[in-house]
Amino acid sequence: MATAIARALAALVALTAVGCSTGPTAATPDDSELFQAVSSSFSGFCSWKSAPATTTGDDAGDGLHGLGPLTVYWNQSPPHGATSFPNGTIIVKANETADPTQRTIFAMVKRGGDFNSSGAVGWDWYSLQQTTAACDVINILWNATVPPGGESYAGTPIGDCNGCHTKTTNDAVWDSALQLSNF
């Protein structure tokens, strides 16, 4: 009987340890994994950490990400002292319109590895559409290291996302709220 109780206790301890594991998840992969965002990855972005979008340096602050006030949202902050954003980081920039389903929404996703090795290394680009006011259903209009033919930033033909984002030393992220030195 004592042996059976000891085995049951050992199994309970093992199950508890597995349940409390802090290993990588789909939302926060480790640096060796290549993260892939899907529509549900952006669901609820309106409730993420956010700040009014402001820019520094030579960022294209001329309405290329949409007209009107902009908000930047991010799903996770980098650790203090980080020199790059962790894989699985999703940054969304959206204009604020009376009808949220008419927003201009762009996102960048840190996929990691050598993804986009000839541009903003590790980053992928998205154009999104919010389909509900609750921000729970997001459609991906396109994602690519170079926007598909005919697509542009908010209707402005300026080239591709890498063209501007590779000009910053802040891991391809321009926004003032997301300067790595802030974390």
What order do the helices and strands come in, and which of them pair?
Layout: H1 2-19, E1 49-52, E2 70-74, E3 90-95, E4 105-110, E5 123-130, E6 138-143, H2 161-165
Antiparallel strand pairs: 1-2, 2-3, 3-4, 4-5, 5-6
Outline the structure in words.
This protein is globular. It has two helices and six strands. By secondary structure, it is an alpha+beta fold. The protein has a six-stranded antiparallel beta sheet, with no helix packed on it. The protein has one domain.
Number of helices: 2
Question: Which overall shape is indicated by the principal axes computed on the Cα atoms?
Answer: globular
Strand percentage lies at 15-25%
The H-and-E topology, N to C, reads as HEEEEEEH
Overall mean confidence score, pLDDT: 78
Termini gap: 54 Å
Q: Which regions have little confidence, pLDDT < 50, spanning 5+ residues?
A: 4-27, 58-62
Brief overview:
The protein is an alpha+beta fold and 183 residues long.
Key features of this structure:
single chain; 183 residues; alpha+beta; six-stranded antiparallel β-sheet; 2 helices; 6 strands; 13% helix; 19% strand; globular
